[in-house]
Amino acid sequence: MSSTTHSTTRPLALGYEKVVSPSIQTPTTKQSTWGLFAPLQHELLVTRRLLSSNAVGFLFIFVGGMLSRAISAPLPLSETVLALAKSLSLCLLCSYIFDICNQTTSPEEDYVNKPDRPIPSGLITVEQGKTRWLMAWTIGPIAMYVLFGPWAMLHLLHWEVLITVCYVWPRWFSWFMRNYFVSFSYCILGRLLNQVLAQGIPAWNISFLIDVSIFVWFMGTIHIQEFHDLEGDRKSDRTTLPMLLSPRGLVLLRFGTSLFTLLFGLGLAFTGYKKIGQDMITPMMSGLQLFASGILAYRISASTSAQYDRVTFHVYYYIPVLTILLTMVLVIK
């Protein structure tokens, strides 16, 4: 069966062009469907690139915090799945709130250290980042208030204030504040998670002492995230603790951090060992955290390259702190 193509002409600035009848060139249903989903696909790609760098840290706070509660006070599967969904939602929201501000206010560093992020890779512009930033910082607290009440909203607003003074104005971000920001952020977000989970599950209300102890651990160790970014930090003129030290001072910093990690693990292992007559899970978990702490301590002091330091932070860093959290929940239960 043959068909005839109908065409017309329309004047242009120079000459004429042939215009094919729209009825013949109408896109297929499949192409139209993909066209409708293209903006969504783009936004998902932007979000994935935006959140990937700090995903492990936020997963530790929210999923690790939920897991520690589930181990100490198990619930039926349906309630556990609902709690996990809440934790993951909080994780995505808080991660987005931080990363969109961080990456919009300092794209120069990302061009050097993290070129795959949305702005240096060209997925979005700085202005588009600011629009997303405003929306996330406005919608997030409103959602907290509607879903979980005023205290959850206040915790999130408290964290936004901390991000503002460190990353926006007046940018208090010395090497001390870099350590303090990560450590205190854990306390704020840990309390936010506690507020959301304990609201419907009173048995999952954990002591603030646990958050304070993890705060201390982060303050003594989080600077190891700077070891593998020294070259990029020099080019972007960022002030970090390793940059302020001489080569000999850097060796001493590594040794001191390793010693702190090991001593913290030993102290917690001793506390868990004293409960050996009451249950076996706590001593076993305290021994596991000591083993993980020992591996991290060794890698911090035995580094041979920037790549070695990168693997230490991204692979080995959060394992001991997760086991520390699980041990403390069992000890203080």
How far do the termini sit from each other? 80 Å
Residue share in helix:
over 70%
Beta-strand level of the residues, as a percent range?
A: under 5%
Number of strands: 2
Q: How is the CATH topology of the largest domain named? A: Tetracycline Repressor, domain 2
- At CATH's second level, what is the architecture of the largest domain? Orthogonal Bundle
C-alpha-based Rg, rounded: 25 Å
- What is the mean pLDDT? 87
List keywords for this structure.
two-stranded antiparallel sheet; 3% strand; Tetracycline Repressor, domain 2; mainly alpha; 2 domains; 333 residues; 2 strands
Question: What is this structure's SSE topology?
Answer:
Elements: E1 7-11, E2 16-20, H1 22-25, H2 29-51, H3 55-72, H4 77-105, H5 107-113, H6 126-148, H7 150-168, H8 175-200, H9 208-221, H10 230-236, H11 241-244, H12 247-273, H13 281-301, H14 306-316, H15 318-332
Antiparallel strand pairs: 1-2
